[in-house]
Amino acid sequence: MSYTDEVLSMLAEKNADQPEFLQATKEVLESLRTVIDANEAEYRKTALIERIVTPERQILFRVPWVDDKGVAHVNNGYRVQFNSAIGPYKGGLRFHPSVNLSIIKFLGFEQIFKNSLTGLPIGGGKGGCDFDPHGKSDAEVMRFCQSFMTELYKYIGADVDVPAGDIGVGGREIGYLYGQYKRITGLYEGVLTGKGLTYGGSLARTQATGYGLLYLTQEMLKSNGIDLAGKTVVVSGAGNVAIYAIEKAQQLGAKPVTCSDSTGWIYDPEGIDVALLKEVKEVKRARLTEYAAQRSSAQYHEGKGVFSVKCDVALPCATQNELTLEDAKLLVSNGVTAVCEGANMPTTYDATEYLLANKVLFVGGKAANAGGVATSALEMSQNSERLSWTFDEVDNKLHGIMVNIFHNLDDAAKEYGVAGNYVAGANIAGFLKVADAMKAQGLV
Ligand code: NDP
């Protein structure tokens, strides 16, 4: 049995109850097959592949908190510190009822390669909790965040592990988490990113993942002789990534016509009104029915459906496994040119295979949404030097990083005989740097 297959079967045996983690490791290891085969003896000797699929540390903890009526609740908290070969652990915190160890491990594993691709010195980690911030008062969210940090603070630090936001963790939650960390430790340090601008946050961090997704999409299309301007774009999600992807797509001359949340979706043939979407989602924290009520050109539909809309470019920006094989078939039959993932692993494994087989230009989340973590690393640099850069300074750096990421993965795909397979290219480029650092640091 090849070394890759041995590790895959070991993973399946030990993690049978972790489907998302198995999906992510399979996707990465399958595309690294040629690299692993070429270095089999060396990697086996140091158990390099077993080590890279095994978290350095997994922290599971209880999060007790009290709601506004005085009722006590308990949630499950997680921090998976996956790989620190190239820098301190870095990766977001997700607060969503679906959070479990499988999801946090899949996200932490992907984060290793994503962070490597940015070219910045950051390792991979991820965390979160099965707490649902929806429908909670500010006071409840604050008490929850304080309880979560009362446990988490023991394991993080500006040079150790630097969490950020993710689904359900935005500026409000980061603020409460930071306040509690500072209160317990007495340290005013860059231990979290995505902070508010008045206390160490970076300009352009809020926009970074969505903007970065469009910078990379534009560069990828350009290198295939296609202009993004004038193209129809479908976007799923209506959160941080989706909103700023829609905003930048419009700035670059494309026309985004959809967005969605967990209850329904909008088709707006005139193009999404970003100011209205921000008002509904960022200010009122309301449902998309509110957008439709205020915009006569918009059609609201219950359930899922953005990928049934005819488009040139599809940008899934909501959550994992939202773009299924059925959606991929609809996209292809409607003539889609490119799919770039704003969310983490939004495309199922079979849907990815189908898109690649049908010559759709496809860039996975670990490259396409790396702008968020890259800008988080820029926030860490600003905190370390006690300086704040201008919006344009950060945005220009982000643009350069995304263009570089595309060319690195494109070059890696060409070098390893899989030209045009950007999924494999991203995995190979991200992996080689981490593998090299792990080899240099010995069996740790
Ligand atoms: P937000 O919480 O801001 O938004 C998530 C959006 O997706 C919301 O519109 C939400 O709807 C919808 N959504 C969430 N879960 C589901 C579900 N199970 N089914 C249908 N819709 C759902 O999160 P972000 O925009 O920050 O993150 C979106 C994705 O991008 C995630 O995969 C995240 O890991 C990834 N990502 C985020 C980065 C960032 O910087 N924020 C960086 C890199 C990746 P509703 O409001 O109804 O819950």
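qc> The chain has 17 helices and 13 strands.
qc> done
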